[in-house]
């Protein structure tokens, strides 16, 4: 059936505009209901501008229909972010200047009970489609490929290699799926909005350093790139 819709809709675009902040920073603005993400795609050009990728997000907007190449009129999105013009970045102006805006429902798939059937298995989004919180989909597909190659190279048979690959990766990605459904590392934005809706002077006035580290560490461990976990596990390289 159709993938379950989270109720959130994403609008993605690329605009050429003047740099924001230091020209090399990724920003995430908002909370669990409405959010804006932007980061530069290249250096500043001779005209003083640079390509900037952005994602605008809003709960309740859009239809939830699964269409991955659906261009839309930018004006309704500009209107949603009309009050988000700051002295360091003009979000509505950035949205309005995009070459094209595509609409995407934020959907995922429930964790599957099985990936492998004989000599056939699943990898990447086919195995574990999840929300883009944490920008980690490509990394998980790479981990799938490395793990699959390792087990195929070391198992007694292709079938045994596929089963070992699934035993490694399916529980790990199921845990990460649950993390993304709880906003992943972006949980701190939700906490800040809930605890200080009128703003704050310093993030530690709202969320202590230990709690910030706890949120970050939980996601890193689930995603498989916490330094301690990486350094403590066996290599996926095969030496012959």
Automatic annotation (TrEMBL):
GO molecular function: any one?
monooxygenase activity
Annotated FAD-binding domain ranges read 111-179
Q: Is Oxidoreductase there in the keyword field?
A: yes
Q: Which Pfam families match?
A: FAD_binding_3 (PF01494)
InterPro entries recorded: FAD-bd, FAD-dep_Monooxygenase_BioMet, FAD/NAD-bd_sf
The reply to whether Oxidoreductase figures as a keyword in the UniProt entry is: yes
UniProt keyword annotations, A-Z? Monooxygenase, Oxidoreductase
Known PANTHER family for this protein? 5-METHYLPHENAZINE-1-CARBOXYLATE 1-MONOOXYGENASE (PTHR13789:SF268), MONOOXYGENASE (PTHR13789)
Q: What is this protein called?
A: FAD-binding domain-containing protein
């Amino acid at each position: 059936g159709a993938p379950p819709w989270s109720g959130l809709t994403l609008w993605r675009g690329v605009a050429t505009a003047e740099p924001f902040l230091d020209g090399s920073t990724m920003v995430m603005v908002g909370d669990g209901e409405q959010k804006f993400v932007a980061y530069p795609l290249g250096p500043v050009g001779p005209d003083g501008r640079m390509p900037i990728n952005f994602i605008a997000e809003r709960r309740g907007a859009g239809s939830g229909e699964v269409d991955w190449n659906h261009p839309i009129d930018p004006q309704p999105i500009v209107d949603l972010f009309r009050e988000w013009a700051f002295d360091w970045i003009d979000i509505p102006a950035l949205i309005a200047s995009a070459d094209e805006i595509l609409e995407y429902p934020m959907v995922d798939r429930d964790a599957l009970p099985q990936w492998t059937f004989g000599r056939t298995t699943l990898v990447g989004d086919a195995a574990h489609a999840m929300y883009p919180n944490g920008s980690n989909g490509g990394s998980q597909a790479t981990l799938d490929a490395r793990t699959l190659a390792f087990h195929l190279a070391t198992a007694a048979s292709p079938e045994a290699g596929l089963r070992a690959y699934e035993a490694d990766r399916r529980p790990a990605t199921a845990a990460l799926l649950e993390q993304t459904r709880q906003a992943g590392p972006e949980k701190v934005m939700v906490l800040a909005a809930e605890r200080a809706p009128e703003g704050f002077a310093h993030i530690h006035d709202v969320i202590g350093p230990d709690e910030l580290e706890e949120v970050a560490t939980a996601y890193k461990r689930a995603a498989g790139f916490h330094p301690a976990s990486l350094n403590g596990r066996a290599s996926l390289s095969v030496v012959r």
